[in-house]
Design a protein that fits this description.
The radius of gyration is 26 Å and the shape is elongated. It contains four helices and no strands. The longest helix has 28 residues.
């Protein structure tokens, strides 16, 4: 007699999601370690303003690897990937709004130390900044 279930799983069989081979997980982990070493090495290279873009680029690649392979988004429904990408775009949009706001107040910012900090540094020579040429 049929129990009326349309699927072929037994009553006690667990429903398993996508199983990733160990080789894929180890390759992803090795890539993350290599990217971490590159991030640390890039700290010692002076690229000027490009250092921050390099660090963010490496972080984006690492986050993409983690979300695709460790979070199984590569094999998941496209809707979940859309939610992830949409939330990341929302964060970038909020950061852009914050940077625009800071840009509006830039002419009113006081360059250098606050007056109380400056007087404290002037009276305590051991905390004064060292001029390096």
């Amino acid at each position: 007699m049929s129990s009326g279930h349309a699927h072929s799983h037994g009553e006690n069989e667990p429903i398993v999601g996508h199983l990733v081979p160990y080789s894929t997980l180890f390759a992803t982990g090795a890539a993350l370690l290599v990217l971490t070493v590159i991030t640390v090495a890039a700290r010692y290279v002076d690229l000027g303003e490009a250092n921050i873009y390099l660090a963010i680029g490496i972080a984006v690649v690492k986050a993409t690897l983690v979300s695709l392979f460790f979070m199984h988004l590569r094999w998941d429904r496209p809707f979940n990937l859309m939610v992830l990408v949409g939330s990341m775009l929302f964060v970038v949009l909020m950061m852009v709004f914050c940077m625009m706001d800071v840009g509006q107040y830039d002419p009113t910012l006081d360059q250098g130390n606050a007056p109380a900090v400056k007087s404290y540094l002037d009276t305590n020579a051991k905390y004064a900044p060292v001029n390096v040429k």
